[in-house]
Amino acid sequence: MKYMALLCALIAIIACGCGEKQNQNEPITASDFQLDTVVTLSIYGQGDKSLLNDAFGEIGRYDKLLSRTNPGSDTYRLEQNAGEGFVAVSSDTIFLLKESEKYSRLSGGLFDVTIGPLVSLWNIHDGTGHYPTEEELDSAMALVNYEDVLIDGDNAMLKRKGMAADFGAIAKGYIADRVKEFLIGKGVKSGIINLGGNVVLIGGKPDGGDFHIGLQDPDAATGEYMGIVGISDKSIVTSGPYERFFMYEGKRYHHIIDPKTGFPSDNGLIQVTVISDDSVTGDALSTTLFLMGLEDGMKLAGDTPGVSAIFVTTDKKVYLSSGFDTTFNITNPEYSLAP
Ligand code: ADP
Ligand code: MG
Fold this sequence. Notes:
four-stranded antiparallel beta sheet, disordered N terminus, binds adenosine-5'-diphosphate, single chain, alpha+beta, binds magnesium ion, 9 helices
């Protein structure tokens, strides 16, 4: 039941052939439910399913290490020991904590890896959700502050009891990069890694052309596109309020939470897509830009080298960041490029 709901709700970007026949060079493809989402791996030209199984094994290993809900994971132990002492964590966790801090600084604290208490309070992940009282909000918000993450070599600590780190906005990108590295190490030259809409491409299509990635229509059922992006060897990640949410008194409450208000971010954006070389940047930045809103987000995207971003507002206007250098066509006429 939970599986089906997530299956329907989560695939934000779908890699597709988009009308082109690929009779030759059919990929080897496998899907699995991992990282609380649908993961699909496709490789072209060589290898066999066992390579994909090994890649799924890698994903599972990272999930065990990074997921807050996995007893024994780094984030689990950080939470258990919050306010008490440092814990030894993996280099992956140290990297993600430092990377998260970078986006916190860039966004004036809107991106915050210590969002855990608010994520737990809203309970959006299990699909039911909880509309919090003011007292509940106040006490959860008081526990969110990225400046209270302490790092000492390979050890980390959350300064105050009750704090919790949550890599939900960045881990999929990081893991997608690791899967790409793994597959390239095994000789793969062409492929698509799709971690629930966090898409990373290995090279281009076997015929040398770009992959065509359908961009989820933020206002339609999963799998309907509003446009198509043509890219090779890059990462493409979207963030949007339609990915995980619950309804309360006729209003949608989604999973990207503004730590300043304690509420799901509500600033007129319905989708942000980031195209970048690595996916840890794309994942962290798409959530960051979504939280920052159109004006500040466009500025940060334009100022970030190697990044092209697509912003969609509630009135179905599409904005491209300055220096946008990716092939992108809007296919749904309800959407239009902002002047
Ligand atoms: P998805 O998980 O659907 O790919 P995002 O990458 O945008 O979407 O990340 C959303 C997740 O990030 C939430 O489910 C939550 O775990 C976490 N999160 C929510 N609000 C924030 C925030 N302000 N800063 C950092 N992480 C957040
Ligand atoms: Mg993200």
